[in-house]
């Protein structure tokens, strides 16, 4: 394929060396420039290189991170070594490439190069080195099919070149032996709170209130949101299956908490998934409240934390979807809890964007 000039290099390149997706979701055209030329143009101009488009593109966008990952997987440190380029180009055709798509902003999508002998274990090894997630926590899906360890090589799944594999990270498997548990959602106070000398009570030094974070729980039947539980609507219409607690502030630790109590056996059978989110009130950014975290434990053993996670908040959005759980197909009253970490927007005043993002996750990542 020809990399058109200008702004491309005018050289013939392999199809694998062209962008698999457009530089921006708003672009609706073919990119006739190779990855190297596309990346170089965006780094310099921060817009789509296609002259009739001119859509703005950030150098830190998800699409650019994917481009960087493809270039790294193809050329590595030898990318600028002209003596090795011919050897690299002839080698590319022996391999296929996978895009590993994730929910979390913490884990950017990556491109993996593999050959016919590549196994699911090999793939999980690579993802462990990139994300630090243990094999047992990695759930990999191609379409509706889970890629399982010990079931042959990747080629046995008939996955085409440049296909997308979806990675979800399991935090915990809830069995029928656990009847009632707590999703403890917490955050740290904004930096604007300082202690008075000799007193443990924080002092407000800006307009951000340490209480201005809320936990919300979304109960879904398929893609339909049956109910939202939050600090305004604290009890489920289905009974005692989900209850939202009041805010708890621990000034000595400079942390705020809101708990959502779940009684698994009381969840109606038509509820297939439950999502948990933290959102900042008013127009505040959730990033002003550091280290939003989840701890999950039984009500009768509150000191025995069964799983936990902390989500980075470098986003300017008002909300973050912390985790979700789906019914397990293995046995009755069992659930699987998954890490999420997807930035979103909105709060208890307007859940529109959160609703949309949750439905997108259902379509892409729940199997």
Brief synopsis:
With 367 residues, the chain is an alpha+beta fold. The chain has helices at residues 35-45, 62-75, 82-92, 120-131, 352-365; strands at residues 96-102, 110-114, 138-142, 145-146, 163-174, 180-188, 193-195, 202-204, 213-221, 224-229, 235-236, 239-244, 248-250, 255-263, 273-280, 293-298, 305-310, 319-327, 335-344. Residues 96-174 form the Ubiquitin-like domain.
Compressed to H and E, one letter per element, the order equals HHHEEHEEEEEEEEEEEEEEEEEH
Shape, per Cα inertia axes: globular
The CATH H-level superfamily of the largest domain is: sav2460 like domains
Relative helix content: 10-25%
Mean pLDDT: 84
Tally of individual helices: 5
How many structural domains in the coordinates? 3
CATH C-level of the largest domain: Mainly Beta
Structural class, please? alpha+beta
Protein name: Ubiquitin-like domain-containing protein
Domain Ubiquitin-like: 96-174
InterPro entries: Stress/Tellurium_Resist, Ubiquitin-like_dom, Ubiquitin-like_domsf
Structural features, described:
- This is Ubiquitin-like domain-containing protein.
- Residues 96-174 form the Ubiquitin-like domain.
- It comes from Pinctada imbricata.
- There is one protein chain.
- The protein is of the alpha+beta class.
- It folds into 3 domains: 15-90; 97-170, Ubiquitin-like (UB roll), CATH 3.10.20; 175-365, Lipoxygenase-1.
- Helix content is 17%, strand content 33%.
- The chain has 5 helices and 19 strands.
- Strands 1, 2, 3, 4, 5, 9, 10, 15, 18 and 19 form a 10-stranded mixed beta sheet that branches. Strands 6, 11, 12, 13, 14, 16 and 17 form a 7-stranded antiparallel beta sheet that branches.
- A hairpin with a 2-residue loop joins β9 and β10 (224-229).
- The longest helix is centred in the first third of the chain and has 14 residues, at 62-75.
- It starts with 34 loop residues before the first helix and ends with a helix.
- The model is unreliable at 77-93 and 194-208 (pLDDT under 50).
